[in-house]
Amino acid sequence: MSHVPTPEAAVEPQVLDIQHDTDPAHDYGPARRIPHLGHAALFFLLAFCCINLCVLGVFAALHIHMEDFEKHQSVALAAQALAYVLTLLISAWLFPRLWHRSFLHGIQWNVLAAHRRWFWIVPGALLLSAAAQGATNFIPQPGKLPIEELMRTPHAAWLTAAFGVLLAPLTEEIAFRGFLLPALATAYDWLALDRTPAALQKWENSSLHSTSAVVFAAIFSSVPFALMHAGQIAHAWGIVGVLYGVSLTLSYVRIRTHSVACSTLMHATYNLTLFTAIFFYTSGFHHLEKLTR
Fold first, then answer.
1. Which of 23, 164, 201, 204 has the highest local Cβ count within 10 Å?
2. Can you spell out the DSSP letters for 231-249?
3. DSSP line for 165-223
4. CA 205 – CA 227 distance, rounded (Å)
């Protein structure tokens, strides 16, 4: 009697995560859509707590009453910078434990894309800054902006510029383009998903977002981004509208390149252009009184 070998049990191949994985030999298994709305809410709650704790802590340590907040904008900026750093450090520790992958991987940082595309991102940021400043010339502006209170002395101006060029773009892009934008896109796709076995299987095996989802996410994630800056410009809603357009551009860059590093580079270059213009206009931050004329 001949012995016929029995076929081995069929092994179901692992699904390639088409958002993050490029080599099936190094596949992470079925795609996990991160960050979702829960992750985004957790990040913003963490940032809110850190900002409040740092501001209260710094003011208490310096024996400054919160009623005098407007008089100590520089101290508040330092506390905010501390809160941003603390938020990023806690996030870099916390979210990899929830995602089972690195923090930069989870937010789709993708620094290689920034290395490959910097030659059009940087000029694009310069054009964006010029367009935004040109648009504000046709918009009524308040006589004195709160952000000018941060630049009363050359030392304060340098600190404000460093914060605005380095830390603020990094934290804001991670918040709005790294967390909120993909979370809104995922929520949109889930609500629009056909409740059929085939659609659910596609949902489980892929983490790509639909075009309509990313458009929706770009439009609505830009609203809180613009409103967050409203206090710095005395709630001049025309300028807030310009910032909304800037946010849409940053969202496009993030979506087009699949890289938060790219939108961060554009955001930082945009802010650098603004502070460079102020630097030359005030003769190296030595004639800051020109800003209030």
1. 164
2. GGGTT-HHHHHHHHHHHHH
3. IIIHHHHHHIIIIIIIHHHHHHHHHHHH---SHHHHHHHHH--PPPHHHHHHHHHHHHH
4. 36
Q: Which of 286, 21, 14, 17 is nearest to 157 (CA)?
A: 286
Angle at 143 (CA atoms; ends 138, 148), nearest 5 degrees: 105
- Alpha-carbon Rg for the chain in angstroms: 23
Kindly give, in sequence order, each residue whose CB lies less than 8 Å from that of residue 88, ignoring residues fewer than 6 positions away.
170, 171, 174
What is the DSSP-derived secondary structure letter of residue 152? S
Q: At what angle do helices 181-192 and 37-61 cross, to 10 degrees?
A: 150
pTM of the model: 0.88
DSSP 63: T
159 and 74 Cβ atoms separated by less than 8 Å: yes
Whether the CB-CB separation of 95 and 106 falls below 8 Å is answered with yes
For residue range 128-159, list pLDDT tens digits in order.
999 999 999 888 877 677 777 788 889 989 99
Tokens of 229: 């800056």
Give Cβ neighbours of residue 123 (< 8 Å, ≥ 6 apart): none
Handedness of CA 253, 251, 167, 274 (dihedral sign): positive
Residue pair 209/185 in contact (Cβ under 8 Å)? The answer is yes
Whole-number Å distance between alpha carbons of 180 and 210: 16
How far does CA 215 lie from the centroid of its chain?
Answer: 16
Judge whether residue 21 has pLDDT over 90.
no
Cα angle: 228, vertex 230, 234; to 5 degrees: 150
